[in-house]
Specification:
The protein is globular. With 178 residues, it is an alpha/beta fold. It contains six helices and five strands. The longest helix is centred in the first third of the chain and has 28 residues.
């Protein structure tokens, strides 16, 4: 029990360090961040808002767990969901684009996936997580990762990857964007 608590504390500290690094880069570039989350259920937003002063660089977060919420809150297309499913790179791209469009932020991140322990299929196994990052009117990236572990570990890893992706994106953005 104590070892598990220590592992969680270390993971939380690592997430906070990533959030601090992302916040520093956003602040330096005069940019705001928006998040669109599904399988992480707000964990990304919670991690970011544990950082004092994050209101200067974190604009808002969308938790869109259902398909209907992805459509209503982010404008994800019903055709996209029908053809590719909620857990797809295509949906992640539409989620981040919708989050930027429906906020005052210039930088966005989205995450959607199957954290388990159920819900996986042969084509979309438990641990399949789709990410997208975007700068308004600029650079965009997306990727699919296959993570291992229980539900908690997969979700924690997804938050870390999402934050690291924000950092990587910002390091490649020209200061002229600000």
């Amino acid at each position: 029990m104590g070892a598990e608590r220590d592992r969680m504390r270390i993971a939380d500290q690592q997430l906070q360090q990533l959030a601090q690094q992302a916040g520093k880069l956003l602040t330096q570039q005069g940019l705001m961040l928006v998040s669109a989350e599904s399988c992480t259920g707000g964990w990304l937003g919670q991690t970011v808002t544990t950082i004092a002063g994050s209101s200067t660089w974190y604009e808002r977060g969308f938790i869109t767990y259902s398909n209907v919420s992805k459509q209503e809150m982010l404008g994800v297309g019903s055709a996209t969901l029908a053809q590719y499913g909620a857990v797809s790179e295509q949906t992640a791209k539409e989620m981040v684009a919708g989050a930027i469009c429906r906020s005052h932020a210039q930088v966005g991140v989205s995450v959607t996936g199957i954290a388990g322990p159920d819900g996986g299929t042969a084509g979309k196994p438990v641990g399949m997580i789709c990410f997208a990052w975007m700068v308004k009117d600029g650079l965009a990236r997306s990727e699919v990762r296959y993570l291992k572990g229980d539900r908690q570990v997969i979700r924690s890893q997804a938050v870390a990857i999402a934050l690291q992706g924000v950092i990587d994106l910002l390091q490649d953005v020209s200061p002229a964007i600000a």
